[in-house]
Design goal:
The termini are far apart. This protein is 43% helix and 10% strand. It has helices at 2-27, 67-87, 108-121, 168-178, 181-189, 191-201, 210-222, 229-232, 241-256, 269-277, 279-297, 304-307, 319-328, 394-401, 410-415; strands at residues 29-38, 100-104, 151-152, 312-317, 347-354, 361-368, 380-381. It binds 2-acetamido-2-deoxy-beta-D-glucopyranose (4 copies). Belongs to the histidine acid phosphatase family.
Length: 418
């Protein structure tokens, strides 16, 4: 008696638990996905005078994607495939030119990252269209692979995906940051440390230059190169020089994104700087969702022939691109809830869904950070942490994002000097 009661209870509990999950997965409709990722592992972009590993040490020179970087992006592509093709059955299993659009900044490493990502996402390419000639590359299963287009535009005018686009107004803001009490305090407190670094690197090391040193040390360590003694030395009883470099870098990367600064002459840097670095990207993402939703409501409207079929839009960028986007989401740290910049091949996806019950749209921001140097096994829903929320739909997202909107657009706003 007691046992059957228990079984009945247990199966009741299972049913109650199973219904909402099943219901949601089978009826809410995914309408549009956007992805923003950082390129994979790369060589340093430059180095200091005294470094024994100069440009000719690195196989392709400065700032180029490595084989590991390509593998990281194949993994990210496979992870995206798992979610959007295998599990959600959102995109076709093979590449369809109407469904996807991929755009990259104009760097070798971001372009090749996008191409590597698409090898992971579409391992079979679109086999019918490939030339069946012996010299053509094949997928692991023996099918003929096809190349998938990646679009780009000149870097200095890429106001959407390159936070360091040509922007005089941003340069003015940075000058203000350098005159801020926080920056000056850092310069003052770290004067001894900065002159130690200057002496050993042969460079004039400012707080901003520490970012380069941190990057170079990180990469040389990752590549198992021998670091000079002055890097491994203890700075004081608790930190090594290398550790202090990371700590200062974390602070400076915050300042570059307008974080950790009190208002300067009434200007809130945590809004004005993200607006110029990430505002255009945030609003590009919002704009695509607004258009997709409008076309979902009225598929016959004039501008919808392209958007009706488009389902996936990817942006291949940099650590700075994701950090800038995070700035416009109101996060108080440069890597969502951590200091430092997002790691290689980390990715944010933005999903537009239609609620089956209410018929209304809702939006989800997911973060897929790099895990164990190579993988993307964690997917974190970060929507709840966006400031000015709750973000329930496109309208509430657009409303809280007004303050980060470059008006009339980034290119024009950048010309307005301070
Ligand atoms: C791309 O690679 C070429 C050499 O193949 C190099 O000259 C160029 O500087 C690289 N550019 C960028 C932006 O990565
Ligand atoms: C703030 O305004 C004052 C007066 O106009 C100016 O002297 C000062 O340089 C400004 N501060 C910054 C950090 O721009
Ligand atoms: C560096 O050394 C570690 C530990 O021996 C190894 O796992 C890793 O593959 C090496 N990295 C490179 C780039 O050779
Ligand atoms: C070592 O330096 C760090 C960074 O300036 C500081 O936070 C820490 O208190 C110092 N430790 C000692 C023992 O002086």
């Amino acid at each position: 008696m007691a046992l059957s009661k228990l079984i009945a209870l247990a199966s009741f509990a299972t049913v109650v638990f199973a219904i909402p999950i099943h219901h949601k997965a089978s009826t809410d409709e995914l309408l549009f996905v956007q992805a923003v990722w950082r390129h994979g592992d790369r060589s340093p972009c430059e180095t200091f005078k005294t470094d024994k590993y100069q440009e000719d040490f690195w196989p392709q020179g400065w700032g180029e994607l490595s084989a590991l970087g390509m593998a990281q992006h194949v993994d990210l592509g496979q992870t995206l495939r798992k979610r959007y093709i295998d599990e959600l059955k959102f995109l076709k299993p093979e590449y369809d030119s109407h469904e996807i659009y991929v755009r990259s900044t104009d760097f070798n490493r971001t372009l090749i990252s996008a191409m590597s990502n698409l090898i992971g996402m579409y391992p079979e390419g679109a086999s019918i269209q490939a030339p069946t000639i012996p010299e053509w590359p094949r997928s692991a299963s023996g099918k003929f692979w096809v190349p998938i287009p990646v679009h780009t535009l000149k870097d200095d005018i890429d106001h959407t995906l390159n936070p360091d686009h040509d922007c005089p107004r941003q340069a003015d803001l940075w000058k203000k940051v350098k005159r801020s009490p926080e920056y000056k305090q850092l310069q003052h407190d770290e004067a001894d440390f900065l002159s130690y670094l200057s002496k050993h690197t042969g460079m004039n090391v400012t707080p901003a230059y520490v970012e380069n040193i941190a990057d170079i040390i990180f990469i040389e360590k990752t590549n198992n190169l021998t670091l000079p003694d002055w890097v491994n030395a203890a700075w004081n009883k608790t930190v090594t020089v290398a550790e202090r470099v990371v700590q200062i870098n974390d602070i400076v990367e915050g300042y570059i994104n307008g974080l950790g600064l009190s208002p300067i002459n009434g200007t809130n840097m945590a809004i004005e700087i993200p607006k110029l670095r990430g505002g255009e990207l945030l609003w590009s993402i919002i704009g695509h969702m607004q258009q997709k939703w409008a076309c979902h409501q009225d598929p016959n409207s004039a501008d919808c022939s392209y958007f009706n079929r488009l389902k996936y839009y990817a942006y291949s960028g940099h650590d700075t691109s994701i950090a800038a986007l995070f700035g416009t989401l109101g996060f108080s740290r440069t890597n969502y809830n951590e200091d430092g910049y997002p790691h290689y091949s980390s990715c944010v996806t933005v999903e537009l869904w239609r609620n089956a019950k209410t018929g209304k749209p809702y939006v989800k921001f997911l973060y897929l950070p790099l895990v164990k140097g190579r993988y993307h096994t964690e997917i974190e829903d970060i929507t709840k942490d966006i400031t000015g929320g709750p973000i329930t739909d496109i309208d509430s997202l657009a409303k809280r994002s007004q303050i980060y909107k470059p008006v009339p657009n980034a290119m024009e706003l950048c010309k307005t000097r301070l």
